[in-house]
Specification:
The protein is mainly beta. Helix content is 7%, strand content 40%. It contains 2 helices and 21 strands. Strands 13, 14, 16, 18, 20 and 21 form a 6-stranded mixed beta sheet that branches. Mean pLDDT is 88; it is low at 1-37.
Length: 291
């Protein structure tokens, strides 16, 4: 079975096969066992569950699809799969973490959490906006080197990869509305909402982060993560279900080192909905930590 799968993957490589199709083959094959062993290089892997290890494995960059914005521009959505169940990785922007085209700016993640125990990967953690006249044969590649493997994935606007955003009429679903202040209009969707001014905090002193979330369902799923920053971040609660109206959701975040951080919050009606690639919203908190 494994050898047949390997041949299938090898036959796809060389065609314009997106990384996420290869990963679908990986994840759908015996996603059960993990073990302690030395790293298996990508070139030597047989694309089975054995590539999921506690540590020593790479992070796979993923292109998830694209959507058109109200102004006619397009946003390309990127996520990642950390093949480690216990090890988080940090990759600064630069030669090991960059976009292929410097014309386009993006808030690239530099911190990569381990494989989530309840869902398969991290979905659309950042977007790249391209102009309305971006051609179908153009690409923007995200390059990421981890555990000795230099990997990349092309983002594009091919019709087969268009995403529902922020509403899926077919599923009757909508992305949660996020407000960072109670009286704000709020934002839905994957491009996300950003705080206007950096939040100030101190090293090793819990800092409260808040958001008001509205959704037709009674509850939504909320997940917090470090996106970028020099030190570690500990959250009083990292993932949970929360009522979707009324009081704000609040967590305490504690930062180990001074510097500028970005904390990412994602929300969706439930984590199972991630599998349908719609509909979730992102929020990004810029935070300045001093001694």
């Amino acid at each position: 079975m494994i050898q047949d799968l390997k041949k299938k993957v090898q036959s796809l490589i060389g065609k314009e096969t997106p990384v996420k199709i290869l990963l679908a083959l990986l994840v759908s094959t015996l996603f059960a066992s993990t073990g302690f062993a030395q790293q298996i290089r990508i070139s030597n892997q047989t694309w089975s569950a054995e590539v999921i290890r506690p540590s020593g494995q790479p992070v796979i960059p993923l292109f998830e699809g694209w959507f058109t914005n109200d102004d006619g521009t397009h946003s390309l959505c990127f996520g990642y799969l950390n093949l480690n169940t216990e090890q988080s990785l940090t990759v600064p922007t630069g030669e090991d973490n960059y976009l292929s085209d410097s014309r386009f700016k993006a808030m690239l993640p530099t911190h990569f959490d381990p494989l989530p125990p309840k869902y398969r990967r991290k979905f659309c953690v950042f977007t790249v906006t391209v102009p309305a006249d971006f051609r179908r044969d153009e690409t923007v590649e995200w390059h990421l080197t981890t555990a000795g493997d230099a990997l990349s994935v092309p983002g594009h606007i091919l019709p087969a990869y268009v995403l529902d955003e922020p509403v899926s009429n077919g599923r009757g679903d909508i992305a949660p509305l996020i407000k960072l202040n109670k009286g704000d209009a709020g934002v839905r969707g994957r491009i996300g909402i950003h705080n206007d001014m950096p939040i100030k905090g101190k090293v090793n002193t819990p800092l409260q982060l808040s958001a008001w979330i509205e959704h037709p369902e009674d509850e939504v799923w909320i997940g917090w993560a470090k996106h970028t920053g020099p030190g570690s971040v500990e959250f009083s609660e990292q993932e949970y279900q929360f009522p979707s109206s009324g009081d704000p959701t609040q967590v305490q975040a504690t930062f180990s080192e001074p510097g500028r951080y970005i904390v990412r919050m994602q929300t969706i009606d439930d984590i199972a909905s991630f599998e349908f690639i719609c509909c979730h919203s992102n929020a990004y908190y810029t935070i300045d930590i001093t001694n």
